[in-house]
Every structure is written in C-alpha cells, then in structure tokens.
Amino acid sequence: MKRFLILILLMGAGWAVAAAQPKPSERATDKNGMIRHPWFGARVGYIGDSITDPNCYTDIRRYWSFLEEWLGTTSFVCAVNGRQWNDVPRQAEQLKKEHGEEVDAILVFMGTNDYNVGLPVGEWFTEAPEQVMGPHKQMMARVRRRLVMNQSTYKGSINVGMSKLKQLFPDKQIVLLTPIHRAYATFSEDNVQPDESYQNSCGEYIDAYVQAVKEAGSVWGVPVIDLNACSGLNPMVDEQLIYFRDKDTDRLHPGTLGQERMARTLLYQLLAIPAAF
After folding, report:
1. What pLDDT was estimated at residue 8?
2. Do residues 76 and 149 lie in contact, with contact meaning Cβ atoms separated by under 8 Å?
3. In angstroms, rounded to a whole number, what is the distance separating the alpha carbons of residues 84 and 197?
4. Per-residue model confidence as pLDDT tens digits over 127-136
5. What CA–CA distance (Å, rounded) separates 242 from 244?
6. Can you tell me the distance from the alpha carbon of 146 to that of 123, in angstroms, rounded to the nearest whole number?
7. In terms of Cα–Cα distance, which of 164, 147, 146, 184 is closest to 85?
8. Does residue 132 contact residue 139 with C-beta atoms inside 8 Å?
9. Which of 92, 143, 173, 191 is deepest in the core (most CB within 10 A)?
10. CA pair distance 8, 2, nearest whole angstrom
C-alpha cells in the first residue's frame, strides 16, 4: 500500500513538473540546445531623442536596426530629435495608440538634452510629517515622502514619464538606458554645445543626469542599462571619434559604427533581462 501511495505521489509530481514546462517559444534553449536570446523576436517600443530617431541624420543606421538584424525584433520607434524626458508621456501615448498590446517591451533612451538645456536635476521626493494609524489603532506622527510629479526638474520629469509608462503598460518590460558621453557639437549659430567637461547652465555635469537614470531604476522598479559605462563610447578621446558622426562638427551623435557598438552592448546586456512576462 505504501509503495502504491509513493508511486501516485511521484506520478503527481511528474505531472506538476510537466504542466510547469514552458511552451517551445518560451524555452531558454532551441531544439539544438543552444541558448535562445530572451529578446529574440520581441516587439520593442523605443522612446528617445535624436540618437534613436530614424528621421534625424538618415545616413546613420540606428542601434535598434542592428537588433532587428541580429534578434529578429520588431521596432516601434517614437523617438524625436531634440526631445527631453518631458516628452516621454507623449511618446508613450503615441506608442499605446499606434501599437497597443503588440508591444512586448519598451526601451527609454533620454537625458542628454535635459543636460544640454540646463534643466535642474531636483529631487525624487518631498517629505512632510503626517498622522498615520499605528499599533492599537493609535494615531502617530510619521514623516512621509511623496514623489515629485512635475516637469520643472529632471527627476520630476522622470517621475511623470515613468508614471505614464507604468499606467499605460503595466504588464510590459520597461528598460532605461543612461545617456552616453558627449563632446563638442555645432549645428547652427544658435545651437553650439560645449563638451561634457563643462558644467551646464544650472551648474551640473552630465554625470548627474546619468546617475539620476540609474537611481530611477530603484525608484520605479525597472532595469537600467548603463550605456554611459558599458558601451565604451567616449568622444572626449580623439581616437574614439571614429564612432561619432563628424569629428569637426558633431562629437555628440554616434555614427553607424558607434550605433553598432551600442547595439552590441545591448545585445549582451539584454540577455539578463526578460523581454516579456
């Protein structure tokens, strides 16, 4: 009798394991046992600025185009030249309206223009004492923090943008990319941008804007890929200008070679992040 019960239990366990097996399309390996990239075939929305925008400098091949080639991804690009984090809600709404549930994941690559215009970095939260119910149903004073939800600062703009993304795409993967290093660029008489060795008009270096995106991962519970460090791109080094659009006039935008290097960085960094849930 004991043997019979043990056999039933083992069979039940086997059925449970079988039921928990992923579908073939969700398995970590293909039929040959090779590791399947978690973003293979994913449908990805891209929110960003000129580095992502296909309509800005059409002679440059973008990083997401390389990912299409290598991973068979589908790209929904909403990025627009010159935009800042305060444009993320609009781009998110556009993505939702045009593609809705088609989207598996979203990459947000913003921040360099916030630095350029001198947007104050600001704070994530405000704090104030409030009364709250405690033990024995007694009211007590506690300091409470609340998210800054206005676009007058960089962190406030990130909060507003992330709130909109989480509302519109609550079950989708959202990944933040930090701004990359930047150097001198001149686009017109009215648009000359010093390199990152200079503070911007509000007294901040680019580092503060990179750090804020890293912090946003913890504030909002999303993965962050540090392209500023991991891509290896730094136009402040003359020998690395091969990766940028024009050594004389544009040491800000990665050229096709730089975009490919960013794409290859993302290819490996995304291995550790699920594309869908």
Report:
1. 41
2. no
3. 21
4. 999 999 999 9
5. 6
6. 11
7. 164
8. yes
9. 92
10. 10
- Look up residue 152 and give its two tokens: 């007058």
What are phi and psi for residue 131, nearest 5 degrees?
Answer: -95, 135
d(CA 51, CA 259): 9
Residue 162 tokens, joined: 């992330």
Tell me the pTM. Answer: 0.89
Alpha carbon distance 200, 82 (integer Å): 16
Q: Is the Cβ–Cβ distance between 238 and 246 less than 8 Å?
A: no
Angle at which helices 206-220 and 154-168 pack, to 10 degrees?
Answer: 40
253: pLDDT strictly greater than 90 = yes
User: Any idea of the CA torsion for 41, 215, 109, 65, to the nearest 10 degrees?
Assistant: -30
Q: For the segment 143-200, what is each residue's pLDDT rounded down to a tens digit?
A: 999 999 999 999 999 999 999 999 999 999 999 999 999 999 999 999 999 999 999 9
**Closest C-alpha to 78, from 98, 63, 61:** 98
Q: Cα separation of 115 and 208, whole Å?
A: 9
Length in residues, the chain: 277
Neighbouring C-beta atoms of residue 238, cutoff 10 Å? 10
Angle between helices 63-71 and 256-269 (to 10 degrees): 50
- pLDDT score of 15: 38
Interval 215-229 mean pLDDT: 98
Residues with Cβ within 8 Å of 91's Cβ and at least 6 positions away in sequence, in order, are 47, 78, 79, 80, 83
Angle made by CA atoms 207, 210, 215, in degrees to the nearest 5: 120
